[in-house]
Amino acid sequence: MDKHIRTAGLTGAALLLLGSTGVQAEVTPGFVITPGVRYDWFEDDGDEENQAGVEDDFGLRLGLGYQFDPRWLAELTIGYTEPELSENDDYDLEMLEGTLDVYFNLMPEWAVTPYLVGFAGWSTYEVDDALVEFDEEEAIAGYGGGLRAQLSERLFARADVRSVTYLENEIDNIQAQAVIGFTFPTERAPEDSDGDGVPDAQDRCPDTPMGVSVGPDGCPQDSDGDGVPDYLDKCPDSATGAKVDDEGCYIELEKPVSIRMEVLFDFDRSEVKPQYFGEIEKTAQFMREYPETRAVIEGHTDSIGSTSYNQALSQRRAEAVRQVLVERFSIDPSRLRAAGYGEQRPVASNDTDAGRQQNRRVVAVISATKKERVRQ
Length: 376
Description:
This protein is an alpha+beta fold. The protein folds into 2 domains: 2-185, Porin (Beta Barrel); 257-368, CATH 3.30.1330.60. It is 16% helix and 36% strand. It contains 4 helices and 14 strands. The strands form 3 sheets. Strands 1-2-3-6-7-8-9-10 form an 8-stranded antiparallel beta barrel. A 4-stranded mixed sheet has the order 11-14-12-13. Strands 4-5 form a two-stranded antiparallel ribbon. A hairpin with a 6-residue loop joins strand 6 (94-105) and strand 7. It starts with a helix and ends in an 8-residue tail after the last strand. Residues 1-5, 12-23 and 370-376 have low confidence and may be disordered.
């Protein structure tokens, strides 16, 4: 038994060394072929009465199988060995075994994984030109465990120790196997858990309902780009950049909103200075987010000059800002109205230069429309 333990230990150490020097690779599904060697320690060593006495010996083995996934492998295995009979060195016992072996990798993500194996099959044996007290054939079964080193995607090494029971004679032997395995990967359709036609590895939206039209990334299509998938969008023609609700329809303002634009004018002038374009753009952006709003662009003046003159000047200032919104920021002119209020609504004292400057201004008042959007 000490010899068995030493052999198993050396086998495990060899596999650990192979795994540590190999490439970390996944266990690949596919067909496998596993040529290798075996060593048998026979219980029938001739010490008991009516036992022929079989010497421990090396043999060959060959397996053909299929790796179903990283854990499960099934192999059909043929083994052959010619041990000597201890009672007569002139004759060799020819043993041929065929088994179905099932392997289970315990830690397939490791470079070296421990595994369990169970097997069952048939054994035939004979000695030419001699009569021996052995059946010609009988069923065998057994189990064992070992280590598997994944050396690359297609190459692995494996070694194990097994208990082998010859069922008719009730003889239990110990067997060690060591193989080099070659995997021939099979092409499989990529996993598509939600059935949307996009492989799971590329699917950014793995929970998409069945039958929903999706893009190359597996996410539901959003034709109008409002962030609501087409299959949930009850308002599929919303404008780009508009604020929408969970159904893809515009969020409507419940009351008017006044937006103060810091658009100030020089004395007796109505030209919009470029430095104020950023302020005007804020209003444009707000109106894009709420496409069903309308705005009144209100112009104002200080108190210098006649009332009628200031009324006309404030109107020109409002028109100038409206024109910037239309031409520079593409706001639909039907949504904008310019209104001049002259000197009627000051926000600061007209007794100082600073106060009069504040009064030479334009303000945007934005209101919700009364039109209700029809939900489809």
